[in-house]
Amino acid sequence: MLTTENLGLIGLLLLGLAARSELVAGAAALLLMLRFTKMTFVLPTLERRGVEIGLLFLTIAMLVPFAQGLVSMKEIGRGLVTLPGILAIIGGMVATRINGQGLRMLNQQSHLMISLIVGSILGIVVLGGIPVGPLMAAGVTYLLLEGISLVTHWFH
Per the UniProt record, which residue ranges are transmembrane (predicted)? Predict the structure, then answer.
């Protein structure tokens, strides 16, 4: 059954494979499997809670060195008061704010998701980047749109 949805997912699967982006290819393949097995009842839950589930696993992966005892409390305490540590705290605060705005933008303009994925794939292939996900890309897109809005406002 070659519906518009399936063709779009097949296109993303092929694009992900061509760009060697296992995350995009895997996500498209999983969604195709859900559609072909008639398990589409899962899709609203994935849409509603998928970002939280993904962030949970990302956070777990980042905390594994701490859980394995590879980072001591002394190192953490020392790191918090260094210039890189303080800048990392500020960077984390700014990133969460920007990514929150990007997520809000995506909720209002979900059609941009494919553009974000294509841009991420191009970033991998052309710029040698690392796919950190649509949420970060949405945050950067939000910043770019806000910057353009400010510039056009100044010239009017």
Answer: 6-32, 53-73, 79-100, 112-130
